[in-house]
Amino acid sequence: MRDERNLGGWHTYCAVSGVHHDAYPQLTSDLARLGAAPTLRLLADEDREAAEDLVLIGSFDADGRELSGFNLTNEALRKINPSTIRLMPSVRPGPSPELGSYLSVPSPPSSSHLQPPPTHYSLGGRGIFLLTQTSLHLLLSYSSLTPISFWALATQLQLEHPDELRGIIPGVGGAYGEVRGAMETFVEPLRCLGERERETGWEEREGWWRGLLLGGSQEVEEVRTEALIGRGNLFVFRRPDRFPISSAFSHPSTPLSIPPRSPPSSSRPTLAHLPPDIHLLIAFHLPLLSLLALSATSTSLRSSLLPYLDALAQRALYTYAPYYLPQARLGERGTEEVEWWNGEVERVGGGRRFPWMAYARECGRSASMWNRRRVWGVVRALEGMGRERGLVQ
Questions:
Q1: How many angstroms separate the Cα of 342 from the Cα of each of 50, 330, 338, 389?
Q2: Distance between CA 134 and CA 140 in Å, rounded?
Q3: CA 390 → CA 2, 117, 386, 387, distances in Å?
Q4: Which residues of the chain have pLDDT under 70?
Q5: Which distant-in-sequence residues (6+ apart) come within 8 Å of 225 by Cβ?
């Protein structure tokens, strides 16, 4: 619990991912209070750095000064000129983010070594939205929303639900997923429990965390797994762009030994009686779980599909799970994500063929990819609401 907090202020959350950068020091403090070993690292420095790499979307003049004000009436919010909606990059937490203090620190011009003065923002009202750079990239990559149409949608929803503040977009609701339990006046990272458990008392939740951290019967890696993608759900605070390429190369899929293909013994027509090229044609259109189920139907089918599993897994990822792949729509930010992917493939793979089936398996174990899929769900929900309101073509 956050009983050491002063009672003033509140946290402004990323409008897409629902995270707040203060979750990272707060989690460290909470785990230490519960007796966790100092060596237990559930989140990395790069996770916090991504949560502090922010942008603002709101009404600004050409010099980046906020035009929307702190406490807008509904009428004033409706009168904001859409032509003033801008995306302000390079935003960082200010000295008192719990009081809405944020800074935009522009890069110095190439012709000068002098650092331009930062622009100060005071958040907390409506009509201005805080996003992490990674969330902005996913928003623009996986939807047809632009910064202006996103602002229009989020503002409309705020007008309809005036009591919901702190950067949360009203109406998104369950799409935020497990992080919604942590989105209190101040972020509470140990409250990221499942939908059915969010109403449980703090004593029960704290008891579960103590049991996990101090039980002693589990290996450190088992504790990490349960805390991140088990009941603890701390995956919501992992940056959603660290693809599990290294673990895919390190743990390639090992096919089971399969006896030589022989004709099906049954006289009744079955799927196994079909020619191998028909098996491949069917498998080509299946999502991953269905593909694996099909390959396990019989040794005959598996022997037909086994040489092509990596190609089939790649196809299934592109078709049914695009959130597990890097996106490049956003120009520079997209290139950064793709370059990270390519750099990892070159560093770890060393020219080897990419293990797509192993990669798909590792995505199911990766806290970063769990979070990426969650944020993708928020983006898809926002786009759906935007289409309903005629804001997205």
A1: 20, 17, 6, 39
A2: 10
A3: 42, 40, 6, 5
A4: 1-8, 67-73, 107-116, 124-125, 162-166, 193-200, 217, 254-269, 272-273, 328-334
A5: none
348, 279, 270, 273: which is closest to 307 by C-alpha? 279
Distance between CA atoms of residues 316 and 255, nearest Å: 19
Cα–Cα dist 38/257, whole Å: 44
C-alpha to C-alpha distances, 70 to 100, 110, 124, 161, nearest whole angstrom: 10, 34, 7, 17
The C-alpha atoms of residue 163 and residue 352 are separated, in whole angstroms, by 55
The secondary structure of 157-218, three-state, reads: HHHHCCCCCCCCCCCCHHHHHHHHHHCCCCCCHHHCCCHHHCCCCHHHHHHHHHHHHHCCCC
Q: Who contacts 322 (Cβ-Cβ below 8 Å, separation ≥6)?
A: 142
* pLDDT confidence of residue 268: 65
pTM of the model: 0.86
User: What single-letter DSSP state applies at residue 115?
Assistant: P
SS3 89: strand
CA 249/CA 168 separation, integer angstroms: 39
**Residue 144 confidence (pLDDT):** 93
384's enclosing H/E stretch is: helix 367-388
Residue type, 210: R
**Nearest residue to 47 via CA among 104, 123, 132, 169:** 132
Q: Which residue has the tokens 């109406």?
A: 171
Q: Please name every residue paired with 121 in a beta bridge, in sequence order, or none if there are none.
A: 102
- pLDDT value of residue 193: 65
The two beta strands, 101-104 and 85-93, are: antiparallel
> pLDDT for 113-131, tens place per residue?
666 677 888 776 678 899 9
Phi and psi of 215, rounded to 5°? -60, -40
Say how far apart CA 185 and CA 165 lie, in whole Å: 10
